[in-house]
Amino acid sequence: MKKLWAGRFRARTSKTAESFSESISFDNRLWQYDIQGSIAHANMLGRQGVISRKDAAKIVRGLREIAHDIAAGTFTFRQELEDIHMNIESALIEKIGDVGRKLHTARSRNDQVALDLRLYLKSETEEIITLIANFQRQLIASAKRNISIYMPGYTHLQRAQPVLLSHHLLAYVEMLQRDAERMKRVYASADHMPLGSCALAGTTLPIDRGYVARVLGFHSVSQNSIDAVSDRDFAIEFLCASAILMMHLSRLAEELILWSTEEFKFIELPEAYTTGSSIMPQKKNPDIAELTRAKTGRVYGNLISLLTVMKGLPLSYNRDLQEDKVPVFDSVDTVKACLTVLHDMFPGITFHAGRMQATARDAYSSATDVAEYLVKKGVPFRRAHEITGKIVLFCISKGKNLDELALEDLRAFSPHFSPDIFACLKPEDSIRKRNSPGGTSPDQVKKQIRRLEKIVNGKQ
Fold it and tell me: Pick the catalytic residue: 156, 278, 397, 436?
């Protein structure tokens, strides 16, 4: 088949070169955005008198018929036509004749692909923001259902202080909210219309870029034609936001994996989201969480991939930029899949309250409360810290928990202890008293739930 750009060339493109350089095998997913942009462009050319309104209408009808064929699965994408743009333009010419050759007036594939990718990412970031909110709602619902359960909080993966399970879950809601805000900034970064920049220098024809931007729902038009065709910052920002989002999902997945072990036994994962072993009949493996953790690496790799593509490119467009799509598409698919499967899995998780709470009681997790009790009695904090450390060492030597000590045991370490110390030794007492803003007390956690529900539901 004759290439649409064949006028300059005497030799045909080799089959190996076609196979090596084609992108239709992956950029075909841009078809609806390519047609959407082409329809807006054709109507603008007709409005401006660059082509006749009759020709513009014929082009638009042809493009809509092609869109119907693609959606119906009856359109054949051809590798020899390289990319989605030339596949659609070639089909248009076959369908309506020479009038179809007028569509590419006052544009280049350089600004065309930049337009398509921006439209695509605007749409996908909106969907990802919705998926994030859906998962946040699941986590909040779980926090509300389990508001009375407490557990050990950890630092260095060592038991530290008792916290409400709900408080722990809401930490992920906060992370996801930052992810949602980052995705909104990605949307804003992509919300500039590059079409009309042409190959790199604009056009001598009287186009109306503002009209096209309004029709396509862009906030503004790009201001430098060289930058417009060579910029992929918006794609890199998406990959960066995706990498951070996946890092958060991976941290959650890691905790689900740990908590589901016999060593922790904090949770039971739903059978529908676990798998067995091909050799060990007793196994119940947390594969969904493990795969979420693993898929984070490929999203990190996608970010590095595009940064590496861009790092040495002279202005303006270079064919290297064809390599922007695979990492973007793969990250979109991966992020959406992970958010969806975790959202679907979470309601089926059973939290073992007895095990969580017993672990918190056995961990000397109210030791900080003892130190703070002494501070309230006038003991300097460093001295209170030392005294409490010696008390813990005593408990370890006697095989006792803090709340099993008698008053005389405590007074052997400091005369400042009184009977009111026993209101500080149980984990539930510790949790209730941590009522500083953002703390783990039931009152504070309920406030956090109400605030986050408003944010996630767009009421704040």
Answer: 156
